[in-house]
Amino acid sequence: MRLSGGKGLLQLVDLKPIPLAHGHRIHGLSLPEAAVGVGPLGAFAGYVLMPVMNERGLFFRWAILPGNARETWGRDLLDGLPAVLGDRGFRWVQGVKTPPYRVRGGKVVETGWREWMGRVRNWIETRFSVMVRSLGLHRIEARSYWGLVARVNLILLVHNLIRSRVLLKMAGVEL
């Protein structure tokens, strides 16, 4: 957490599913607080990672929530943070700037969203892609809840080490 430098001028937040079981294996999963949720690949049993990233692309706060968690379940994680950008799911969380959305009848609710915010919000999606493809966030094979927590913490630490370029500086490759 010290490596990330803490909160910055701009923070990004999103949810990332951590599936531990799919299909008929959903009913056999018996980790505490695991729940059935819906992700991009359909129903899964497991958890959801809710990380907060600063403008340098480093994660400095995160929580592991049940798989069926909603964005509002992690509002305590965002307390005291200025300028937080989230997707439309965060429109019910106080203090998070979200894109405009439509209500029944087609009326558009303006939220103060600017065009550049959409490009900045994609940074967290890019970081998720790196953690899935390169660091194996989607392949966590935990036998216990604390094994899952340790693995997720390790993935976030490695991501922050790589992103901060500390390892390159230690090796003398980058000044």
Could you please describe the fold and organization of this structure?
It is a single chain. The chain is of the alpha+beta class and 175 residues long. The protein has three helices and nine strands. Strand 8 and strand 9 (108-109) form a beta hairpin. The chain is globular, with a radius of gyration of 17 Å. It starts with 10 loop residues before the first strand and ends with a helix.
Task: Give a summary of the structure in a few sentences.
With 175 residues, the chain is α+β, with helices and mostly antiparallel strands.
Features of the shown structure:
26% helix; 175 residues; 7-stranded mixed sheet; 3 helices; 25% strand; alpha+beta
What fraction of residues sit in β-strands?
15-25%
User: Oligomeric status of the shown chains?
Assistant: single chain
The succession of helices and strands, N to C, reads: EEEEEEEEEHHH
Rg from Cα:
17 Å
Q: Report the principal-axis shape.
A: globular
How much is the average pLDDT?
Answer: 83
Give a short account of the largest sheet. Answer: 7 strands, mixed
* Low-confidence runs: none
Q: Count every beta strand, where a strand is a DSSP E run of 2 or more residues.
A: 9
The helix content, as a percent range, equals 25-40%
Give the count of helical stretches. 3
Instruction: Report the structural category.
Output: alpha+beta
Terminal CA distance reads: 23 Å
What are the SSEs and their pairings?
Blueprint: E1 11-13, E2 16-21, E3 35-39, E4 42-54, E5 59-66, E6 84-85, E7 96-97, E8 101-102, E9 108-109, H1 115-133, H2 145-164, H3 166-171
Parallel strand pairs: 1-6, 6-7
Antiparallel strand pairs: 1-4, 2-4, 3-4, 4-5, 8-9
